[in-house]
């Protein structure tokens, strides 16, 4: 591998690295050879480097690396920059500018899987790893600066000066003097995945005897066809689904519904708030008859990207006839099976697949997640024992799963529905719209409202006209279970396109997730506006628009002020919008551009008047 060292003072660090097997060292400094050789011990280190076959290059500007190397020698696997500084008494602003130019230059010479190592004195970096931590404005803000060039902080650890044979720091205020490196940290940066380009996506599917197509809502373009549950997937969501199914099959007769279930439903879902639904308009001339739709199965689903000249009427945000919508639950499919009597009493019908729900933004609120639905018909009067057997089986399976995941130890506890009240998370709150719930399945001994509810159990005594049978169903949010078992704090990480996520789960093995993007920077923007007179402000639509505009980089929306103007009665709202990505680089300029676009689209789609 090719290793580039920048800003070497006396070349003692480079000399300590040279000679490593399989490594070619290129050591550089900003000064000329005559100036560099005058530093104490530099001449000896330079000779040692050259004798070992390393390259030594002088007068190298770290912000213009591409200019100093020929095209064939321009790619490096690792770049070191120890204790960068503009010199003399340069302040934090100038040193941030130096780092910004350095990272932009690294983007042109670093290998795709390469690393950048930047050592800083204690407190300079501005991350929680610094102890004590400086105030943000007085730090070098290295993670935010690197994000502007497309890099994320993937590791940070103490700078091990003692591990480098013969290393001696020098360059204090541009002099041949040492400085204190106690508590210094080495920051390791890697390339981020590129920002997502949300090209309009067309979905084609079979409904009855007719093929139909529709445009996927922009907020779902990168989520609707990911195949997490497919046979060749090693995603933790599939692993948990397979383990739960296997556990159920050991205790009950199981029938897995393997046919492709329709993504689209027709009509108006009873009891569900319409602002929580992704409404769909079929392409012109392709709407099937009601009978075909209700009986149709999605035998095939095909996806293709629209061109830029796509009819704007199909874009999300235009008036949508409320006829078709993306399925918010698998429960209607189970009800169809029950109505057809296509089951045997006591046999579990197991369905699984993604479901889609508009919701507010939070670490545990997902516009799409994978549902595992278990349905069975039992003799009336025996439902309590069946429910307990079902819960015990699920708890045993989950307990066996987390035993192999050190540090993540949730437990599944059965809680009465009435014990939660207003503390339900968005998943459970939406499920209440689908019908009465007897029991919640919650992770942890002391459930917290932030995201503890991972499943629920309901009974449907009216599904049969017969008085002998009653239907019991259990719904599990596989994504929330994966987060809890693998220690994933943000649901967005489950959907990342960065390959480093799935590499942590080889062959479907569950492990405690280690984030590859540490201390991601956040950017706070406020927006204030007048609400249209006489209208209730739709917060779900507001949050959904933020998801769409930001590509899921808005991590929090908080109401800061609710003001009613005396005399006119006009109402003004002020929200604080926080941008932060969990898996890719997000710079302050990109966040500011998103905020401006958000403001524009709020006026267009929500009818508000900006203040």
From TrEMBL:
- Which InterPro entries does UniProt cross-reference here? aa-tRNA-synth_II/BPL/LPL, BMT5-like, Fdx_antiC-bd, Fdx_antiC-bd_sf, SAM-dependent_MTases_sf
Q: Which Pfam families match?
A: BMT5-like, FDX-ACB
- An example Gene Ontology molecular-function term: rRNA (uridine-N3-)-methyltransferase activity
Tell me the ranges covered by the FDX-ACB domain, including all copies: 518-611
Q: What are the BP-aspect GO terms? A: rRNA base methylation; translation
- Indicate the transmembrane segments per the record: none
What is its subcellular localisation?
A: Mitochondrion matrix
Annotated coiled-coil segments of the chain: none
Q: Which family does it belong to?
A: Belongs to the class-II aminoacyl-tRNA synthetase family.
Full protein name: phenylalanine--tRNA ligase
Q: Which gene encodes it?
A: Fdxacb1
């Amino acid at each position: 591998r090719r290793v580039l060292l920048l800003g070497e003072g006396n070349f003692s660090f480079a000399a300590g690295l040279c000679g490593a097997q399989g490594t070619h060292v290129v050591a550089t400094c900003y000064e000329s050879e005559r100036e560099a050789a005058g530093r104490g011990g530099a001449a000896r280190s330079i000779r040692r480097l050259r004798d070992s076959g390393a390259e030594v290059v002088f007068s190298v500007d770290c912000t213009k690396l591409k200019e100093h190397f020929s095209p064939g020698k321009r790619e490096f696997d690792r770049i070191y920059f120890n204790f960068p500084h503009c010199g003399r008494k340069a302040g934090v602003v100038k040193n941030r500018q130096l780092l910004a130019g350095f990272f932009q230059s690294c983007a042109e010479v670093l290998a795709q899987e390469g690393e950048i190592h930047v050592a800083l004195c204690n407190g300079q970096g501005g991350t929680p790893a610094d102890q004590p931590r400086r105030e943000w404005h007085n730090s070098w803000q290295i993670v935010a600066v690197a994000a502007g060039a497309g890099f994320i902080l993937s590791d940070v650890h103490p700078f091990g000066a003692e591990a480098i044979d013969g290393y001696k720091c020098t360059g204090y205020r541009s002099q041949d003097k040492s400085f204190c490196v106690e508590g210094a940290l080495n920051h390791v940066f890697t390339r981020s995945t590129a920002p997502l380009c949300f090209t309009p996506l067309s979905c084609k599917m079979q409904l009855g005897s007719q093929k139909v197509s529709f445009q996927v809502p922009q907020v779902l373009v990168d989520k609707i066809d990911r195949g997490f549950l497919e046979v060749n997937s090693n995603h933790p969501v599939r692993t948990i689904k397979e383990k739960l199914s296997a556990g159920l099959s050991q205790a009950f007769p199981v029938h897995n519904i393997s046919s492709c279930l329709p993504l689209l439903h027709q009509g108006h879902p009873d009891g569900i708030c319409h602002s929580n639904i992704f409404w769909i308009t079929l392409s012109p001339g392709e709407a099937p008859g009601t009978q075909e739709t209700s009986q149709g199965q999605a035998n095939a689903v095909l996806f293709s990207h629209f061109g830029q000249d796509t009819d704007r009427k199909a874009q999300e945000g235009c008036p949508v006839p409320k006829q078709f919508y993306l399925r918010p639950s698998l429960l209607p499919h189970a009800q169809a099976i029950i109505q057809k009597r296509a089951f045997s009493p006591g046999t579990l019908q197991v369905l699984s697949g993604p479901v889609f729900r508009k919701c507010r933004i939070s670490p545990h609120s997902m516009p799409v997640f994978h549902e595992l639905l278990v349905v069975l018909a039992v003799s009336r009067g025996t439902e309590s024992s069946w429910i307990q057997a079902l819960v015990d089986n699920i708890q045993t399976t989950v307990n066996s799963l987390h035993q192999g995941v050190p540090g993540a130890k949730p437990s599944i506890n059965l809680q009465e529905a009435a014990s939660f009240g207003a503390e339900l998370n968005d998943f459970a709150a939406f499920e209440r719209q689908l019908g009465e719930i007897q029991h919640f399945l919650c992770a942890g001994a002391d459930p917290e409202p932030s995201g503890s509810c991972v499943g629920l159990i309901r009974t449907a005594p009216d599904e049969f006209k017969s008085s002998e049978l009653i239907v019991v169903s259990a719904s599990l949010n596989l994504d929330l279970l994966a987060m809890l078992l693998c220690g994933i704090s943000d649901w967005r990480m489950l959907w990342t396109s960065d390959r480093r996520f799935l590499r942590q789960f080889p062959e479907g093995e569950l492990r405690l997730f280690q984030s590859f993007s540490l201390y991601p920077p956040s950017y706070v923007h406020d927006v204030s506006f007048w609400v249209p007179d006489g209208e209730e402000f739709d917060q779900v639509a507001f949050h959904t628009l933020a998801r769409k505009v930001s590509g899921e980089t808005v991590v929090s929306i908080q109401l800061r002020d609710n003001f009613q103007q005396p005399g006119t009665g006009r109402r003004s709202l002020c929200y604080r919008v926080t941008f932060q990505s969990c898996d890719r680089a997000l710079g302050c300029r990109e966040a500011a551009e998103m905020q401006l676009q958000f403001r524009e689209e709020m006026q267009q789609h929500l009818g508000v008047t900006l203040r």
